[in-house]
Amino acid sequence: MPYDVVIVGGGPAGLSAALALGRARKRVLLCDAGPRRNAAAEHLHNFVTRDGTPPREFREIGHRQLAEYSSVEVRDVRVEAITGTRGAFQVKLKTNTVEARRVLLCTGMIDEMLGLDGFRELWGHSIFQCPYCHGWEVRDRKWGYLARGVESLHFPLQLRGWTRDVVVFTGAAFDVPEPMRARFGEMGIRLETRPVARLVAHENRLESIELSDGTTIPCEVLFAHPPQRQVDLVRALGVGLDEEGYVRVDPMTRETSVPGIYAGGDLQTRMQGAIIAAASSVQAAAMLNHELTVELATAEVAGGRE
């Protein structure tokens, strides 16, 4: 008997979708394996009732709640390939192959660490992507932002709300337009255009940023947006991607360019966060439930007439 939906990925997105579909009495397989994107994070924030929860504990709570729904199965197994068509997908797992009427991708993204000395070790401890997730705990400290292009220069403007000490590092990689320089000056944001040599830290806590000429800039918290890429499974499926590499979905149904395959969570937007990922996946689950209910009920009635 095929699953109604196979969900790939068991973070906040996959867990939320599985819960919604389980409560809708759909037969679901949640495949949760592979490296955790937020493994380096100490706590999950900005998620009401779960603010400050460690990611591992969040998953454990999710698994316990899903256990109440007999139609939901959670496996610690990797999805290796997906073939077939809408209504009849073959999902190859490491242990066996299962069938599914629909597939929901909640795989997140892979963050590619910058080649800056100390970057990988500090990721999730002193280097963050989202001030809404981590800003409160490090408020009023010395903050920095690694800007990778002109298009990223609007981001540090909001950091001024958490601290008065903000330095934007461009690493001499691009020219900063005069209007933006003026805006930084008006807001008391320092602009540092010299190349960055390395990050100076004690254990896993950032202390300063050393520039190519040996100058050190005191910095306790660094925000950065390193390049991201899709996991191999998503790329192999050939779903349509936008110009930034995120999966294109229908804004209402969350269906991708491949009929029957849906996406929720971070893999389809740069606006990333646990609660945002959960919300988009619940939307996908609701659309899937509606579609499957109509499909299955129609087939059941038609079968009864034969």
Describe this structure in words.
By secondary structure, the chain is of the alpha/beta class. It has two domains: 3-111 and 227-305, FAD/NAD(P)-binding domain (3-Layer(bba) Sandwich); 119-224, FAD/NAD(P)-binding domain, CATH 3.50.50. It contains eight helices and 17 strands. It has helices at 12-23, 55-66, 119-122, 131-134, 155-159, 178-187, 232-237, 274-305, and strands at 3-8, 28-31, 72-75, 79-85, 88-93, 97-105, 110-111, 127-128, 143-146, 166-169, 190-192, 196-202, 205-211, 216-218, 221-224, 228-229, 261-263. Strands 1, 2, 3, 4, 5, 6 and 17 form a seven-stranded mixed sheet that branches. It has a five-stranded parallel sheet with strand order 8-15-9-10-11, covered by helices on one side. Helix 1 (12-23) packs parallel to helix 2 and helix 1 (12-23) runs parallel beside helix 8. The protein is elongated. It starts with a strand and ends with a helix.
